[in-house]
């Protein structure tokens, strides 16, 4: 059973100042949820929250470096004091350094795993009780890179693959009260693609059977679905949101 409909849920989203996280924040707020817009980009998180409130929604912008256990504790104290216990957590933040394994330093490797994978452990460690109390859910943001390899992204691949098995594990350990699911986006038009050449963007578009990059909103709507009553019998699931990229050998 999900929390009764009609009650305001608090939804905490990490990496919500830009891209898929920001689109998710707007979408949850539009359907009446109270959104905690967290990010290391404090100003941009505040701007997203300001825009949500200006549109009639409920949100705050909160600093959260997902790699810092103490920052999770500080946010937990703040949200509990404000009677905003998260019923839904969307783990979306990531950090990526390119380069083959021998080119990556210990620090590069550790930071990527900490931000992208261990942050999900921290989220559950910190808020398992509020998710359980709310009969809530967690949605993790992996990638098609969790099931296929592209050149010179070893820590990203390890973290994104790890998110798929960690999701399955958490869905077992916190059942029956908390549902835990993961989405695997393909190429989504966010600022991440601004650094890529137009040839690479076009190739990624052609590799999707839908013949284009996705939009942040097209991932946000799937995240929102997984956190909704409509997905009340879905847990431990990995859902591709890749426009068909991984269904064929591509362009
Ligand atoms: N864009 C794509 O093509 C694509 C494809 C597959 C998966 N994804 C996944 O989607 C998610 C969102 O990516 P995006 O494309 O929207 O990128 P983005 O750069 O627009 O957003 C990522 C956000 O994470 C924040 N962030 C970085 N380090 C952080 C930290 N330590 N603590 C908290 N926040 C931190 C950034 O400030 C930023 O706001 C990521 O998990 C990414 O791996 C994206």
UniProtKB/TrEMBL annotation:
Record protein name field? SDR family oxidoreductase
Q: Which InterPro entries match?
A: NAD(P)-bd_dom_sf (IPR036291), Sc_DH/Rdtase_CS (IPR020904), SDR_DHRS6-like (IPR051122), SDR_fam (IPR002347)
Q: Which residues form the signal peptide?
A: none
Which residue ranges run through the membrane? none
Q: Which family does it belong to?
A: Belongs to the short-chain dehydrogenases/reductases (SDR) family.
Q: What are the entry keywords?
A: Oxidoreductase
* Cited Pfam families: adh_short_C2
Protein origin, superkingdom: Bacteria
Q: Which organism is it from?
A: Rhodoglobus aureus
> Would the keyword Oxidoreductase be found if you checked this record's keyword annotation?
yes
């Amino acid at each position: 059973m999900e929390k009764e409909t009609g009650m305001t849920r608090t939804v905490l989203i990490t990496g919500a100042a830009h891209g898929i996280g920001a689109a998710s924040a707007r979408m949850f707020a539009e359907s009446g949820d109270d959104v905690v817009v967290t990010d290391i980009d404090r100003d941009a998180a505040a701007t997203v929250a300001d825009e949500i409130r200006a549109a009639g929604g409920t949100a705050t912008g909160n600093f959260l470096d997902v790699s810092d256990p103490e920052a999770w504790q500080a946010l937990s104290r703040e949200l509990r004091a404000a009677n905003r216990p998260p019923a839904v957590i969307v783990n979306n933040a990531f950090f990526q350094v390119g380069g083959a394994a021998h080119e990556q330093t210990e620090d590069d490797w550790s930071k990527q795993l900490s931000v992208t994978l261990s942050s999900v452990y921290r989220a559950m460690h910190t808020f398992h009780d509020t998710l359980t109390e709310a009969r809530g859910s967690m949605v993790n943001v992996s990638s098609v890179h969790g099931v296929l390899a592209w050149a010179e992204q070893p820590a990203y691949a390890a973290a994104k693959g790890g998110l798929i098995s960690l999701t399955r594990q958490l869905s077992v350990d916190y059942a029956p009260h908390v549902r835990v699911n993961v989405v695997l986006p393909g190429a989504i038009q966010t600022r991440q693609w601004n650094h890529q050449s137009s040839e690479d963007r076009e190739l990624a578009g052609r590799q999707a059977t839908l013949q284009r990059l996705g939009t942040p909103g097209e991932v946000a709507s799937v995240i929102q679905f997984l956190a909704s009553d409509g997905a009340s019998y879905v847990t431990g699931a990995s859902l591709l949101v890749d426009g068909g990229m991984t269904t064929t050998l591509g362009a």
